[in-house]
Specification:
The protein is mostly helical and 192 residues long. It is built from 8 helices and no strands. It has one domain. α1 packs antiparallel against α2, α2 runs antiparallel to α3 and α3 runs antiparallel to α4.
Length: 192
């Protein structure tokens, strides 16, 4: 647990310098910290680093945006499996997951999807579904740090949609801090 300061330092360096390398080092150092305890979580973080690379280098290229979504989609599948292997409670997480799904259905149909380029609509919609499933599975584990981490990932993704598609530029400052905090909390949840 004492090594958790490493990804924290990398996250701070990324936000302070804007250099992508620190983004990769944040995610990969979290993966290195957890991979022996949970190879599945380590793999999810490594796949996230791949998705992050595509998103960070996408520019205006839809194909790279889709590759980023595919990378994070694969990571979410691993988070779903990780969560399903640790189910402790169902009633409240399923109810909260259903409420969040209803909110996201409204958000996507009313706010985001009308502004998303045609080639990205289906990938974004499918990614939203797997994100909500991963969030619901995280809540079923009873591990507050893990659930909060995955919740922050969902929030960060929503801020990306607001920034990239809706045009709400003010949300851009929330994307990286919540994304890195997600990874750090997930690592903490596994190390505790």
């Amino acid at each position: 647990m004492m090594w958790i300061w490493i990804p924290i330092v990398f996250a701070i360096l990324r936000m302070a310098t804007g250099k992508y390398v620190f983004s990769a080092l944040t995610t990969l150092s979290c993966a290195a910290l957890v991979i022996r305890t949970s190879p599945l979580a380590g793999a999810a973080l490594i796949v996230s680093a791949l998705g992050d690379w595509f998103m960070a280098h996408k520019g205006s290229r839809e194909d790279l945006y889709i590759m980023g979504i595919v990378g994070f989609f694969a990571a979410h599948i691993l988070w779903v499996i990780y969560g399903l292997r640790r189910v402790e409670t169902l009633t409240i997480p399923l109810a909260v997951g259903a409420l969040m799904s209803a909110f996201y259905a409204w958000y996507l149909t009313q706010r985001a999807l009308p502004k998303i380029p045609k080639g990205l609509k289906l990938p974004v919609a499918l990614y939203s579904v797997i994100s909500l499933v991963a969030y619901t599975c995280a809540m079923t584990t009873g591990n507050i740090w893990y659930a909060l981490g995955i919740c922050l990932l969902l929030f960060s993704d929503t801020m990306i949609a607001e920034h990239d598609f809706v045009g709400n530029q003010a949300t851009g400052v929330l994307i990286l801090p919540t994304y890195y905090l997600c990874q750090i909390l997930v690592a903490v949840s596994i190390l505790l």
